[in-house]
Every structure is written in structure tokens, then in C-alpha cells.
Amino acid sequence: MSEKYEGVKFRTVFKSKDIPVDLRLETLKMWAKKFDEYRLAPPYDGGSAGNLSYRVNSDSNKFIITGSRIGLKCSLQDDCFVMVENCDFSNGIVYASGVREPSSEAMLHFAIYDKRKDVQAIFHGHSQEILDAAKTLKLPATSEFYPYGTKELLQSVILILEKHSVIIMKDHGFIALGASMGEAGKLSLQLIDRFQNE
Ligand SMILES: [Zn+2]
After folding, report:
1. Ion ligand 1 residues within 5 Å by Cβ
2. CA dihedral in degrees (118, 122, 127, 131; nearest 10)?
3. How far is CA 45 from the centre of its chain?
4. Whole-prediction pTM value?
5. How far is ligand 1, taken at its centre, from the CA of residue 177, in Å?
6. How far, in Å, is the centroid of ligand 1 from the Cα of 1?
7. Domain ranges across the chain
8. Residue 162: left if φ>0, alpha if ψ -120 to 50, beta else—which one?
9. DSSP-derived pairing of the beta strands 93-97 and 63-66
10. Is the pLDDT of residue 11 over 70?
11. Whether the Cβ atoms of residue 97 and residue 63 lie closer than 8 Å to each other
12. Which architecture characterizes domain 11-197 according to CATH?
């Protein structure tokens, strides 16, 4: 998590400049704010290190995700969010609609939605305390550290994905997977309680 943020590592092809229109954005904004409040998305120069998304329809992998380089501290506007429609993993392309690039982990979110049809929301955060407690709490974790936004990181998560609802990315951060945003959010906040009570 001490990695320097260098922007997204894929190419975004914009299918349109349409800003997502969806009532559920308000729920996502609320959780983004909580991530900031609970220090699960530490600020860096120009943004916050964390990304949150939800699946748009249960029968497709399309999702709405926080844009790259947005600060979760400020109240987010609708144009801070991007709809990801598809990913071309072999060519490193993300197809999206919106006015900014999707989060650097957009491909990871896509791969999880593709493998886990039960998952409707994915929240990814960073917390040294959670990483420190992960072993004691016996949370499933990737075996190697890989830089953010890489294919290797994505593959290491998919490898241990199974039916887990919380996954630790070694020396990096956590991912909470929920059947709703509320569930992914609760799982994230519970991690804080768990390391505090450990
Ligand atoms: Zn991360």
C-alpha cells in the first residue's frame, strides 16, 4: 500500500461520455464517504486509495465504479463514477462510459463479477492494521505481493476467490464482496472491529 500511484495501467475505450444515471449511486457515495471516515481509503496526492463498485444488473457483468484519482473525502458528484461495460484482458482494454477513467482496479472488479454471479458489490480498501491482523484472523490471502492494477494481482485474487466474502491482497489491502452494497460495506467495517478486538 506504500506503492506510488501512477495512474491506471490499462487503456480505456469510452463507448460514450454519459455519466451514470442510477439511484443506487447515492448508496455508493455514502459508502465511499464511510471508507474515508474509517480510514479504509487513505488519501494520496489527488485522490483516495480505494475503489468501490456495484453490479448494475444481475444478468450482466456491467458495473458502476469510482473513477480514478477521485478523493472520497469530498462529496462525490455523479461524474466521479464510471460505468464499466466490458474488459479485454489480453489487450488490456476497459470499455466504459463516463467522463473519467475508471479506477485502476476496474479489471479486477470485472474479473470477480464474471466469476462470482452472487457478488453484487465489491469494495476495496487499504488499511495497515487490517493487513497486520489478517493472519491472526485467518483471512484468506494471496500468497505474493503484486503491484496494483496488474494482471498478476488479478490472477492471484481469482486463484483464491472461491466463495470467500473477504480477501486480503498480500501487503496491499482487502476486498469485501457482498450480495449488496450494504453487505460489502458491513464486511469492510467489521474488519476494523475484528482487528480492534483481536
Ligand atoms: Zn489497492
Report:
1. 148, 173
2. 30
3. 19
4. 0.95
5. 15
6. 7
7. 11-197
8. left
9. unpaired
10. yes
11. no
12. 3-Layer(aba) Sandwich (3.40)
